[in-house]
Structures are given as structure tokens and as C-alpha cells.
Design brief:
Elements (H helix, E strand, L loop, with lengths): L2 H22 L3 E6 L4 H4 L9 H8 L4 E2 L7 E10 L6 E12 L5 E8 L22 H7 L6 H6 L6
Antiparallel strand pairs: 1-3, 2-3, 3-4, 4-5
Length: 159
Amino acid sequence: MTRKARNAGRMAALALAAGVVLSSCAPVYRNHGYVPTDQQLSMIEVGRDTRETVGDFIGKPASSGVLDSGGWYYVGSRWRELGWREPQEISREVVAISFDQGGRVSNIERYGLKDGRAVPITRRVTDSNIKGPSFWGQLLGNLGVLDASQVINGDRPPN
């Protein structure tokens, strides 16, 4: 093999390695969830359509309110992964469809990351009201239990 051929082979291997390294830095995009388009939402009439007709037009969502009268929430997000870095959410859309007591559509809203509004996908129905003593309450509650002789001698306090 000639010197020129060897150099050409090395250059080709180097170019291939550089291509592999650079292609591993290309961003990878992932889409999660489903959000109906504006065209699909335009088929829904507020005050006329029901849960059944909304389900027929755009499908039932993966998330809905806890109660039967709760709304339907369609959530979609787009993530960007770049090499070894942590994935970053670059867009999020939430379409919230509210229903009245009769099961008819009362409102349709669309939110995005820029809106910064939280949609209550889950609700806490009950509050336990069980509270334990605080750190300071526990610390101050143990003041009269031990005396110095028990600590020095290693005796345990009486129960």
C-alpha cells in the first residue's frame, strides 16, 4: 500500500468518526399525548354538544375530572433530547373542555407553557386533618424524661 492510500484511508476513518460524533449531538424530539386541533374543536358547539358527541368528534381523553361533572383534559407535550443532557420540555398544550350539570359543553379552553396556569387534573377530595407534633414539640416534650445520671450510666428511662 502506498503512503497516499494509507493517508486517504485515515482521512476517511477520521471523517467517519467525526460524522458519528456530530450526529450524536443532533437533537431528538419526542411527542407525548394528544391535543385536538383548532379545526376539530370548531366542530364542537358550546351549549349544544354533550360528552358523547365530543367523544365522537375528537375522542375521549386520557385524563378527566374526578367527578362525573368534571371536565375533560387533553394534554400534549414536545420534548427535546440533546446528547447526554436532561430532556427539556419545549412545548405543552392543554385543552380543557368543561361540562355543565346536564352534561353539555360549557367551555373550551386552551393553555400552553407560556400561560403558566395549572389545570387540576387530580383533586384531593378529603383532608385527613391528622397532624403529629412538630420537631420543636418533640424536642421540648423530651426535656423532663431524662436526668444526667441516666445519660452517664447508660440507664434507660422508665416507660
